[in-house]
Please model this.
Amino acid sequence: MTSKDKPILILGIESSCDDTAAAIISNDLILSNEVSGQSIHMAYGGVVPELASRAHQQNIIPVVDLAIKKAGVKVEDISAVAFTRGPGLLGSLLVGTSFAKGFALSRNIPLIEVNHLQGHVLAHFIKEPEIEKKNPSFPFICLLVSGGNSQIIVVRDYLDMDVIGQTIDDAAGEAFDKCAKVMGLPYPGGPLIDKLAKEGNPKAFVFSKPSVPGYDYSFSGLKTSFLYFIRDQMKVNPNFIEENKADICASLQEIIIEVLMTKLVKAAKETGIRTVSVAGGVSANSGLRNALLAMAQIHGWEMHILPFKFTTDNAAMIAITGYYKFLKGEFATQDLAPYSRVTMK
Ligand code: KG4
Model:
């Protein structure tokens, strides 16, 4: 048992996609949070799994080393190692999983497996030195929007969550990235569309809206409608994209936000939960952040939006989840394997 005055130090490892990340937290207070991105994928318009795995192998030791040094802690004081078990790219996950297993074994400390999606949600509980903030109170709803997932989650406690809606095909981040690719923009397209959209008219063009029952999402129809629209316009005017880039981005972003918000409002209304949060890479989108704040005003929600650094993939969110699992004694064994596809629970 860790005594009261000795904090629990967790090393968090994240390697589910194309970011190799390591973080140290002391209880719920973040001490370091290092990320090494992989620019190699830009040339391919998307993440190439084999290249991602190789880059993780090169990056993991330097990133962990930096996280420990920046945190100013000793390796022998680390209480446990938490790692992303899934979902994600299997080869990428294997690098983080193997590293975490080896680290736990060599230090003789507990190993904690973390669901990446749960990590995104619990990023809301990361404390930063000298920053006062209010944590969401349970129960709350989390709109989790990333490159691989779009979900509406009811969060009853740190480790008690239910996915009540999710995408039946593409994720919101995929819609941003794939439509950006159609426009010839580099990967990841989401941040670029966000930037260009600021200069454009969101009502300039109309794309088809999905109709899916319940709280589920669908973005593949929108992607196809966008592709056909661009193809048809380019036949008439080969400079269509260049001449209308900002308006196209603003209109596309507008529809993605509208789709996300409609189901979120429905979920909040029907569950009666008025504390709402957002997480995942797409929650960095400025239009979505503004729409959430506006809806919070209209519906009287207590709204929780993450600092940008905790929206995209990071290891602090894995470490904080590890901390709550450590408190409950939820440890993993050395024989577990990563998983590529699974939702919460
Ligand atoms: O959470 P994340 O880092 O990785 C996954 O777990 O998937 O999310 C990455 C996704 C990418 O699709 C990226 O284009 C999108 O988040 N993204 C954005 C913005 N920043 C990142 N999408 C729209 N607007 C942004 N500002």
Notes: Strands lie at 9-14, 20-26, 29-36, 80-86, 111-115, 140-145, 150-157, 160-166, 275-279, 302-305.
